[in-house]
Amino acid sequence: MKHSGAANKEGALHGLSRAFGSIWSVASEKPLGSCHTCSYHTLLWGTLRLICTTTAVQRKNVGASGPEKYTEAFIKKQIEEFNLGKRHLANMMGEDPETFTQEDIDRAIAYLFPSGLFDKQARPMMKHPTEIFPEQRKIQWGEDGRPFHFLFYTGKPSYYSLMHETYEKLLNVQKHQDQLTVQDLPLQKEKNEYSRFIHLLQKLVALPCTDIEEEYIQKFSKEVPVQLQKVVIDPLQFDERGVAFSTGEGKRKTARATAVIYDNGTGKITVNGIDILHYFPVLQDREQLLFPFQFLGRIGKHDMVCTVSGGGRSAQAGAIRLASAKALRSFVTEKEVEFMRQAGLLTADPRVKERKKPGQEGPRRKFTWKKR
Amino acid sequence: MAAPSAVGLSRRLRAWLPRIMPVRWSRYDPSYLEPEVNKELYQKPPEKLTEEEREQMELKAVRPIKAAPPTLSSSVFSDPMVSKFTNMMMKNGNKVLARSLMSQTLEAIKRKQLEKYHKAPENEKEAIECNPYVIFHQALKNCQPIIGLSSITRGGKTYQVPVPLTDNRKRFLAMKWLITECRENKHRRTMMPEKLSQELLLAFNNEGPIIKKKHVLHKMAEANRAYAHFRWW
Asked: Which residues form the Small ribosomal subunit protein uS7 domain (chain B) (predicted)?
């Protein structure tokens, strides 16, 4: 058996010496450290250098290797031989080989090989090899001495391999979780009672004959109203000249605006008595004012008079936009109102200035971090 | 009129004690959907809508919609890319200045292209692109990197690991490079619109320092290919 390790290198090489008689080392510079009893000579040919020769061969330490180890092939061969021998014995005794039991074998052996020895274990016996050869741990290394299990040298290969596999599974799960987190997907399917109930209801609804249980299912279903139906649209009003008009109110941040839109107009827009060109010098604000009209394609058709207070430049523009969109609802079909809502014209913008928090310089900005 | 939840917000603010307060929250309830401003989508007759669009319309009918931001409008002149770029150019909230710089840049591009157009011989006239918006979009697209680098620290050393980029990140990087390039590498006396238009025209033709920067980034990513396995996402 080959052993690894520097201390036993000598022993290994001496083991080889049983076959070759002397030790040769190939191109090694250093002599073997603990080789006191040997001398080394240099040979003339090649790079071979005789390191040490021994006359006495190292004796094999019989006790150290433990009980004799049988290979699997050996045991198998023994079993085959036993079965064959059993059949031969049955033939010899003139009995049926198929139904020859162990008792019959014992009787036959006792008859054929009578023995007067007192110790039953010493008498000749023919038993199944598994009873004769003690059960041993299968040899855990191959012919080259390399162990089969990669964790053999830990001393507890099964335990450590189990831990290793479990940790690998853990890492796998963590990796999967990271991937889900990055993609902003939920980490686990929320399988609480509610979702299971919903799942069951869906299965029920999917069946072809659900109509018989319709009223039961209606108890759990809720009508999701179309958003539009929540709002009441005022009808058009008419002023003294007979021109149709409607009013709307809007707000954005701190600005509050009211708009009155007249029909049969030329597209003139007045804010607080001032023309929009003068009131809103910035192009972006005027664009916002015209947005609802442009969306509906009614740019030159209406006149607008608005009043606005509070807020800043952009906030006032946003407020007037909301007010005019609300006012335009009365002039327009329901479908177009729905389109306006989906374009974001009819929602009041809830964004306001975030408050400053104590311990911070602003709503988000923290004070300068000082190390000391 | 259904006002988007201020009540819901205060409820959420009060409920933050047991859980960590999310930093990125919005004044809108999560059920609010983004507004769609494109007029043509609404003018399409219902037969021509695809399955997806039909589903989208049905969903939008029952869900509240956010308000359109002040930069967005249904007019032909509003371009989300251009407004994003304007916002990135803006300093200290001076939107007026940023917007005027942007319009001057587009004007400068148009002028330069027109000059080239009028000087070019007949057969080449069609090849010259005069629409400044087209030039802007194409230039930005040419500047977008495909792969980026991310610093990952392993065992004390920081490695530059090649990483795929999302669309938003690509656009952001392209715009950022353009703006920093125009702010830094110019003569003190050149105006921003002039320099920007110059850079945009170069990028449109796949030349110029920004395209070079993109190629350098790609080469670095290629060189650090060996560390690609450090990425766990």
From this structure: 68-225
B contact residues 12-71, partner A, Cβ 8 Å cutoff: 27-28, 35-37, 39, 42, 60-68, 70-71
| Distance of alpha carbon A155 from alpha carbon A149, whole angstroms | 11
CA dist A183 → B12, B169, B172, B233 (Å): 25, 15, 20, 9
Kindly report the pTM of this predicted structure: 0.62
- Token pair 């007045």 is found at A270
In Å, how far is B148's CA from the nearest CA of chain A? 17
In the sheet that holds A269-271, the strands lie side by side as A237-238, A244-252, A255-262, A303-309, A269-271, A274-275
Q: What is the ipTM of this complex?
A: 0.84
Task: With a cut of 70, say whether residue A295 has pLDDT above it.
Answer: yes
The answer to whether the beta carbons of residues A262 and A303 sit under 8 Å apart is yes
Tell the burial category of A302 from Cβ atoms under 10 Å away from its Cβ (0-12, 13-18, 19+): buried
Which of A77-86, A260-269, A323-332, B4-13 shows the lowest mean pLDDT across its residues?
Answer: B4-13
Q: Quote the Cα angle for A118-A123-A129, to 5°.
A: 140
Work out whether the CA dihedral A331, A336, A340, A341 comes out positive or negative: positive
DSSP calls for A303-336? EEEEEEESS-HHHHHHHHHHHHHHHHGGGS-HHH
A 10 A CB-CB count for B201 gives: 20
Give the C-alpha separation, B83 to B93, whole Å. Answer: 14
How far is it, in rounded angstroms, from Cα A260 to Cα A303?
A: 8
Distance from CA of B110 to the nearest CA of A (A): 20
Q: How many CA atoms are closer than 13 Å to the CA of A282, on its beta-carbon side?
A: 18
pLDDT over 50 at B176, yes or no: yes
- What residues contact residue A267 under an 8 Å CB cut-off, 6+ apart? A293, A299, A300, A301, A302, A303
Confidence at A49, pLDDT banded by 50, 70, 90: low
Backbone angles phi, psi at B231, to 5 degrees: -75, 130
